[in-house]
Amino acid sequence: MEKTFLQLEGLGKAFGKNTVVDDVNLSIGQGEFVSFLGPSGCGKTTVLRMIAGFETPTTGRIVVNGRDVTSLRPNQRKIGMVFQAYALFPNMSVAANIGFGLRVGGVAKDEARERIGEMLTLIGLSGFEKRYPYQLSGGQQQRVALARALAARPAMLLLDEPLSALDAKIRLSLREEIRAIQKKLDITTIFVTHDQEEALSMSDRVVVMRDGHAEQIGTPFEIYNRPATRFVANFVGTLNVLEGTVSDAATGKVRLGAGEVVLKDGLDGARNGDALALALRPEAIALGPRVGNDGRLTGEIMDVHFLGSVIRVRVGLGKEVVSLDTFNNSTTPPPKVGDKAEISFSCADLLVLN
Ligand code: ATP
């Protein structure tokens, strides 16, 4: 990792008796893009607000570049922030909005004009300086909000669900744009979102939050492919979670529905009869047998969703339901609801969840 820029040490926050952030520990490198991902109410915004200085932590410290900033006021922290609602000043032009912090911060007029120009180029809105927010699309307004946050050359950028008020197509293009600008400026960035795709596609690392604590911290690849817990598996992506029972711990045998699978690495510490949750990615499952697939289970087709190039099929296996994607090859008709089905997979792809 790059040199550490930001450290959260045992960070916690309680409102009265209600602990909403609990012992969050994290080192973030210079220039790193880190997302806090989690369902509504898990405490991600509160973490961001503590980093910004809008909330005082109940426990722990926030260290920036080796300096404890926990008790500094927001305006002493060199932070740029963008919120979900664009929060532009409606009665100010684009240029005045972008230059707002510069004026407040006492930057000279010529210098401010130059920086506003730079920012407009950066966000691809040169020529828009005289417009007012109501004359801009939602995506353009959010780019102006980003320019306003960056104009004062902050040391860190905090983004609180900046894309969630936009429609799907703009959201996708702004994701890429924000990431490109962030990389260009090499600015350490923290992004709060409840959208797993957003977090996975934009971030260097993702912190999955649950009930105030960091459930898992890792790269998108690690979080998606190696979820540490059932919660992460469920929340990130469409991972299938299957409930099994250990039938022979010594040889790694687990009963799943009416079938049985064998875990290659065995089952250290488990006892026969223990309940066990196993995760399996949809793309690791085939409909019907496949060469090399040593795991097989039979069930019944529950749903078939035609998505174009891919057909998403849900197969019921007794109590469990698994989702899998098959490619539409245009000559094979899709399976029908109610048909008997066999699924197959490589047992090496089964992941034991904590
Ligand atoms: P969302 O995505 O809905 O914004 P979040 O994960 O960002 O959720 P937070 O906004 O951090 O969650 O809130 C975490 C918990 O803290 C919630 O239960 C919320 O009601 C509570 N909370 C937040 N701010 C305050 C406050 N000022 N006083 C009391 N409780 C608060």
What does this protein look like?
With 354 residues, the protein is of the alpha+beta class. It folds into 2 domains: 4-235, Rossmann fold (3-Layer(aba) Sandwich); 240-352, RNA polymerase II/Efflux pump adaptor protein, barrel-sandwich hybrid domain (OB fold (Dihydrolipoamide Acetyltransferase, E2P), Beta Barrel). It is built from 8 helices and 20 strands. It has helices at 44-52, 94-104, 109-122, 138-151, 168-185, 196-202, 220-225, 230-235; strands spanning 4-15, 18-29, 33-37, 59-64, 67-68, 79-82, 156-160, 188-193, 205-210, 213-218, 240-248, 253-256, 259-262, 275-280, 286-287, 295-306, 310-317, 320-327, 340-345, 351-352. It has a 6-stranded mixed β-sheet, sandwiched between helices. Strand 4 (59-64) and strand 5 (67-68) form a beta hairpin. Helix 2 (94-104) packs across helix 3 (109-122), helix 2 (94-104) packs parallel to helix 4 and helix 3 crosses helix 4 (138-151). It is globular, with a radius of gyration of 25 Å. It starts with a strand and ends with a strand. Adenosine-5'-triphosphate is lined by residues 15, 20, 38, 40-46, 194. GO terms for molecular function: ATP binding; ATP hydrolysis activity; transmembrane transporter activity. Keywords: ATP-binding, Nucleotide-binding, Transport. It holds the Pfam family TOBE_2.
